[in-house]
Amino acid sequence: MENKILVPYSDQWPRMYQEEEEKIKKVIGEKIMDIQHIGSTSIPKTLSKPIIDTSVLIDSFKNVDSLIKPLESLGYRYEPTMSSVERHFFKKGSPTQYHLSIGYTDRGGYWKRQILFRDYLRKHEEVRGEYEQFKLSILREDATIDKSYTSNKNEFVDKIVELASKELI
Length: 169
Hints:
Elements: H1 12-28, E1 34-38, E2 52-58, H2 65-72, E3 76-78, E4 87-92, E5 98-104, H3 110-123, H4 125-141, H5 146-168
Parallel strand pairs: 2-5
Antiparallel strand pairs: 1-2, 3-4, 4-5
Helix pairs in contact: 3-5, 4-5
């Protein structure tokens, strides 16, 4: 079961990410084009579900299936129903402590959206507060279904990605 509680930012999260990044690089490092800490735990001073989100970029969707077994050796479980044409999604821990998404350069804009969103919230404190309030309201309305929580966030995330893209111009 996923953690449904938002907690204050922890200085432990960057360290936890670094430790996990090193483990991931040991088992699939030769395939990694980039690896980043994403999601709310990567944004200082932000309420978050205490789950470390890692995103890996690889060159092609065609190469992702060869990564499943090595990641299983670290305790990651591939979640096909939570994956999409733009990413493979994995969970680790019980309760879940880590999420891992593998995005591909040849499919969709998953990677770019994640980085734009994270960097924009790191830069804009007022938007971080708005995002926290938005997440709290979603959890109050429906604290039972993870997919609902994620899908309800999509509209807000899309708005922020659009703002971040305009800021780059």
